[in-house]
Amino acid sequence: MPVIEINDKPVHVDEEGFLTEYDEWDEDLAEVLAQQIGIDLTDQHWKVVRFLREDYKSQGQTATTRRVNAVGGIHVKEQFALFPKKPGKKMSYVAGLPKPHGCV
């Protein structure tokens, strides 16, 4: 896996730029990742990101938008408003997680 530097910190990423090491992520890194895709993180964004991180830790895979809706209680419409066009990819990218299964 390639190693790149983000925010003066080396991080392992896959070929699409998604982090591959759970423990390399922190909230400062999330801010930088969000800025890279044009998102200014609000409390509602953080709610999604924190849900994804906790869910990944217990489930071993990145939650889909459906799971974020059903288990996290964040409606799909809101996910699209917070992370426009491709919420699954963008949410997982900012959360420092692999792209969800089934996400193109």
UniProtKB/TrEMBL annotation:
One of its GO terms (cellular component) is cytoplasm. Gene3D superfamilies: 3.30.1420.10, DsrC-like protein, C-terminal domain (1.10.10.370). Keywords: Cytoplasm. It is found in: Cytoplasm. InterPro entries: DsrC-like_C, DsrC-like_dom_sf, DsrC-like_N, DsrC/TusE. GO terms for molecular function: sulfur carrier activity. The lineage of its organism: Bacteria, Bacillati, Actinomycetota, Actinomycetes, Micrococcales. Pfam families: DsrC. Its main location: cytoplasm. This is TusE/DsrC/DsvC family sulfur relay protein. The active site is at C103 (cysteine persulfide intermediate). One of its GO terms (biological process) is tRNA wobble position uridine thiolation. Belongs to the DsrC/TusE family. It comes from Georgenia yuyongxinii. It comes from the Bacteria.
